[in-house]
Structures are given as C-alpha cells and as structure tokens.
User: Fold UDP-N-acetylmuramoyl-tripeptide--D-alanyl-D-alanine ligase from Thalassococcus arenae.
Amino acid sequence: MTLWTADEAVKATGGRVTADWKATGVSIDTRTLKPGELFVALKAARDGHDFVAQALEKGAAAAMVDRVPEGIAADAPLLVVKDVQTGLEALGRAARARSRARVVAVTGSVGKTSTKEMLRTVLAAQGAVHAAEKSYNNHWGVPLTLARMPHDADFAVIEIGMNHPGEIAPLARLARPHVALVTIVAPAHLAAFESLEGIAREKASIFEGLEPRGVAIYNGDLDVSPILKAKAEAHAARVISFGEAPGNHHRVSHVDLQDACTVVQGRAWRVPVLYKVMVPGRHFAVNGMAVLATVSALGLDMALAVSALGRWSPGPGRGARERIVLDIVHPHMSVELIDDAYNANPASMGAALEVLAAAEPRNDLGRVSMGRRIAYLGDMKELGRTETAQHAALAELAAMHRIDKVHCIGPLMRHLHEALPPARRGRWTETATEMAERVARDLDAGDVVLAKGSLSMGLAAVVDAIRKMRQGPAGSDG
Assistant:
C-alpha cells in the first residue's frame, strides 16, 4: 500500500523531486530499510547522506536529502528539502493532519515504553493501531513515527521522551493527541534539571499539545501531582487522575504480586475492575490502570480492554521473565531470569527490586540447597548532584531485605556496594563485561536473578552470560 507519493511529499515539505515515485514506508536506517521505502538521510551519529547510494541500491523508492550526494546518478529519485530534520517534521505533521486516528501521547520518567506497548495491545482489540516498534520518542523519533502512520489507522500511540528542558511541548504539538498521559515523575535526567519539580513541569508540558476537547491523564500519587494537575486543567477539557491513593478517579485498591503475573483490583471511575498483567510488578499494575483510564477517555469497551490487558507481557530488557534450563536431562534444574537491563533510575530500580523480592526461588535443586534472589545492578545515570546518595539509598529499600546477594557494576554502584551489609554484599566490578565473566559461578539451580542498570552500562552482557548457561537439546550447541 502506498504511504507517500512524490506529489504528497512535495506538498508536505515544500521540497522538490528529481523523479516521480511512490513509497510504501519511511526509513532512516539502511540496515533495516525495505524495498519501496523512502530513505530519510538524517544527520545523527553518521550523516545519512553517506548512505543514500546504498539505500537506493537496496530498493528505496527515493531519498530525502538537503544536498545531492556525490556519486548519485543524475536520474536518482530524490526529495530535496532545505533541511532533512525539518523535512521529516513536516512529513510527520502532514501525516497527522490527514489521519483519522485518535492519538494517545505518553510520557513519564518510568514506564512510558511499557505503557505504550500495553496501549498497543489493548487498543488493537478495538481497531487498527499504529505505534513505534522501538522507543522512538525524541526529536526525530516522534516525527518518524507520525510519518509512518498508515492511512487506515484507528488509533496511534506516540511515546514522547526528553533529556533537557523544552523538548516535550514541541513534540506534543506535532503529535496533537486527543489523550495525553503522564505515567510518573521520578529522579531521572536531574543533571539537566534543577529539581524534581522542574522535571514535573517538563513532563506536564505534554498537555500543551492536546487537541480541543482533549483529555489529560496524570499520576495522582506523586508529591509533584499538583504541578501535573494544574497544567492539565489549563489545557484539557477533561482531567483524569490515576494511582493508588484515595481520591484518584481511576484507583488501584489491591495488588497481588504473584510469581508469574500481577492481579489487580480497583475502580475505573465508579466501575469496579479486576484485571491481570502477565508479569509481576506494582508499577505495571498502576500503569495498567492508566491504560484503562485512556480506554475510558476514548469511550471504548472496558471489558474488551481488560481482557486484552491480560494478554500483554513486557519486551526484552523491560522486565520480561525467562527460564534458563541448566541441565537438559533434568529440566527442573533452572534459573529464572528477570531481564530489566534496558534502563534504570531510582523509581524503576525500586520497582524492579520489589519484583525480585516477591519472586519465589526453588529449594533443594543445586549445589546450594536454598534457592536465592540475586541482583546485578548497574549505575543509574543523569542523576546530577544527588547521584551518590541515590545509589547508596537503595540499600535501605524494604525490598532489599528479601534479596540474598547484590552484585554491583560501575563507579556509582560502588556506593551501594559499600552501604550493603556484608551478608548481602556481592561482587563489585567497574564494567558489566568484567561482571559477566563470573556469572556462571554466582548462580545455581533454583535462583531468581535480576539484571538492571542504565543502558550505557551494558547490562546486556550480564544477561547474555546468564543465557549462555542454558543447555540446549542433545546434539545442539547449547
């Protein structure tokens, strides 16, 4: 199906074309580009103009450029614009203008990607949904997601992130959501903000992009909730709060953290609800209520939504659970892995440790008779002046008292390592690669293990080392 014609792209961007073309999609990466897509030559870590020839060789319908690269054929199909970033934004703006989809925008310090994926699953039960496959939530990710929006989408879910002040509002105005949602405000990116209140004001600026008669949804459990509420009331026709505290419009009243799922009771406005998500975690329970609040705001079927929510599970690196069989002859000899290695800040770290604390190890299986709860924790970045105290403070969390061993990675996590009691203190290494070298000696059958840290800490190396303990079928490489 054609997504963009040359004529439509020219009208959207004000550019010019060197030949006629039709594109079935939009790509910024030649590694994943599919034949028929429009290649956008963004300037990021590398200048996309250096890859235009490769994109055309792989079958790109055309390339959006702001200069004609050397070595390109005279008749090559190009969309020439003044600036590629601005051109992509214009393409996204035009896609949003022509779409009949009802748009939901999501931001938050924690849980925006998992909430986006919950919304994708829930809304798909009631129409065609468009959402980014990855965390495309920045200055190029949001317009790219919009530019890729199919003509027939009933719903679109747009994730919006930030690293510095002033980033969210322009992206929200580009997305023009009918519903805007803030999951939580927590100490993250404090290096760029003076205070938690500053982060709250930035997150609340998502409401500035709301369409007329738009709905604002915010977490009502926070110290900074009044900041969110005030901004919501200034820009929304309807305001909905969610959380666990009395007084929230959509309220979680009971959370049962089970070994493989979370069962939640609450009220969606005045209607009692009981729902399940297929992963343990109080934060998933609360964000599930935010999803149901969105369903209510869109006027959709709540019963279908509750049923669909029970089919959602998190993706790799975001709390997904995995059984690693250590002995193919005795499949019960296994380790349970909680892969939450994609990112971390104090709020998400606390939530992940609570999940680990609630997990049930299995006893009398391996060389260690008692199954253990074991954590591999990497530095939390961008916490500013409070970074030392925030890492050390993890030792005081209630969940820590149920965790048997904590291995720490990175210079900041050394402060947690020193704050832990000796019995709970595991190894400390500078890098995840060093830690990964001895993972197989740390773990035994029956253990439950969590890996979590900021993305730049590379906790994926530890996760991979745990997975390599897996024994495959006879005759395989394991």
Notes: Residues 473-478 have pLDDT under 50 and may be disordered. The chain has three domains: 4-83, 99-309, 320-467. DSSP finds 16 helices and 22 strands in the chain.
